[in-house]
Design brief:
190 residues, alpha+beta, 15% strand
């Protein structure tokens, strides 16, 4: 920014009445940002409920922790977003206490071949990737999800999830049916 612009802003904000107003507004920005992000994910949830619920999918939002799309019969398995307030990642999540990871990886080979390796698998995440273009701590993303602009971003995320459900729902059903652990180490807690 130019020095003259910075000087003009300083001169304006250095006036007592302007400084107080600016401080009050600035103190509310974090709360406004949180509300923008929460409302964005709620709208994604509503859009996905309309699209997926008729065919038996559940859409669960636990802001700011996670957002999961799953079948009612699944336990500890789903398509999930995490880090909803930061730089979210999206992928297949399943509990290693409930599912055999080797078999899960075999059942998801079509996903991995088509979608790419994704990030390094970690506990509970046989496949995931960072959601590109969405960093909810950056002004550009927050501007994209302002109510006046939000519809396109909601559609972008909903389209991606719907595509995953359509293309990989059968594979995930197989994971649920065929890779559950049995015996004393199989638990329903994770």
């Amino acid at each position: 920014m130019s020095s003259s612009y910075t000087d003009a802003v300083y001169e304006y904000l250095a006036q007592p009445e302007n400084y107080r107003a600016a401080k009050q507004i600035a103190s509310q920005l974090s709360a406004v940002d949180d509300r923008l992000v929460q409302n964005f994910w709620r709208e994604v949830q509503q859009e996905l409920l309309q699209r997926l619920e008729p065919s038996g999918w559940l859409v669960q939002l636990r802001f700011p922790n996670d957002f999961t799309v799953l079948r009612a019969s699944w336990q500890k398995l789903g398509l999930r977003f995490e880090d909803l307030r930061g730089n979210p990642y999206f992928g297949v999540w399943c509990s290693e206490k409930v599912f055999n990871r080797v078999l899960v990886n075999e059942r998801l080979i079509d996903l991995k071949e088509k979608e790419g390796k994704g990030s390094n698998p970690t506990e509970g995440w046989p496949w995931y990737r960072t959601l590109s273009g969405y960093r909810f701590y950056e002004g550009a993303t927050l501007e994209r999800i302002l109510p006046a602009h939000r519809a396109l971003a909601v559609k972008d995320i909903a389209d991606m999830v719907e595509r995953f459900v359509t293309e990989y729902g059968v594979s995930l059903d197989r994971v649920d049916r065929e890779t559950r652990l049995t015996g004393p180490f199989a638990t329903t807690q994770s």
